[in-house]
């Protein structure tokens, strides 16, 4: 009987803490704007910092707010830059975006 008690206590504790972690994640979780992911996918993902931002994700956030343009990204290809600017123009004007 003494050998059964520790696994039951640890199993119960693990179950309680698991449910607690789930509830905290559900009610206190922060959802990030999915458009940042879309913009980041259009960038070259070098995270070089040549644009003046810490990485491509920070630049994507700045592009979404309209505080910079795609021309700030040095290694981006010309056609990718045009596609990104078109996407951002549609986004910032409120036009439904077509990828």
Your description of this structure?
- The chain is mainly α.
- The protein has 2 domains: 1-30; 34-93, Electron transport complex subunit B, putative Fe-S cluster (3-methyladenine DNA Glycosylase II, Chain A, domain 3, Orthogonal Bundle), CATH 1.10.15.
- 60% of the residues lie in helices and 0% in strands.
- It contains 4 helices and no strands.
- The protein has helices spanning 5-28, 34-42, 56-65, 78-93.
- Helix 2 (34-42) crosses helix 3.
- It is elongated and about 75 Å long.
- The termini are far apart.
List the helices and strands and how they pair.
Blueprint lengths: L4 H24 L5 H9 L13 H10 L12 H16 L6
Helix pairs in contact: 2-3
Provide tags for this entry:
single chain; 99 residues; 3-methyladenine DNA Glycosylase II, Chain A, domain 3
Can you describe this structure in just a few lines?
The protein has four helices and no strands.
Largest sheet: none
Tell me the total number of β-strands. Answer: 0
CATH topology of the largest domain: 3-methyladenine DNA Glycosylase II, Chain A, domain 3
- Averaged pLDDT: 90
- CATH top-level class of the largest domain: Mainly Alpha
Look at the structure and name the CATH superfamily of the largest domain. Answer: Electron transport complex subunit B, putative Fe-S cluster
Tell me, what's the shape? elongated
Percent of sequence in beta strands: under 5%
User: What sequence of helices (H) and strands (E) makes up the elements?
Assistant: HHHH
Percent of residues in helices comes to 55-70%
Quickly count the domains. Answer: 2
